[in-house]
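Researcher: Go.
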Amino acid sequence: MTDSNDQAQNAHDYMLVLGALSVAFAEVERAPRYPTGRRETDVEHSFHLAVSAMELANDFYPNLDVGLVTQFSLVHDLPEVYAGDVWTFDISDEDRAKKEAAEAVATAKLMKELPPYMAGLLERYEKQVELEARFVRFVDKLLPAIINIMAGDANTFKEDYDVASIEELMKSREGHRQELLRKFPEFDVIHLVKDLLFDSSSNYVYSNKNYRNIFRDT
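Model: Structure:
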């Protein structure tokens, strides 16, 4: 009976930790905006990544463990509880280095606070050795373009970065495209999906069309 009580107390304690983590994570704002103009949160982004990555893995990469893909999606940005989110659109090498250093410190701190299973997942994700971890990191790069489509006139490129034309946006994205091809050569289909999404995002950002009601309309 004592063992059961101790186990229950341990579960009680880590449930409170996870509750506090969830609240704090939901308060971390990202650069992409929703149609109302408010920022996307890390909780919303992680849900979006989890449902997207598991569907893509199931459809195109049967060698991947879909459950592990989903779990990595849920923990991938947890260090931002301490480090915050820094958007990498046209980021300088110096600012990227600062971002990575801050995230490394945040990860080390968080690893000491998370329950063992989640700490282990985060550690595995950060190592980027397992194919599932690399897959999640790649799919993560596709999502801002989608949110910016949903945002319509509230999108980040117009509101925050003053990208005035589709030509300017496409020029900035070409370098990003080449970088992803170098980093993730093993996910050929996802590169095709990414190109289509980037094209759709560029077209819809500078038109009067958007997809934000697609779920409700169907």
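Model: The longest strand covers residues 29-33.
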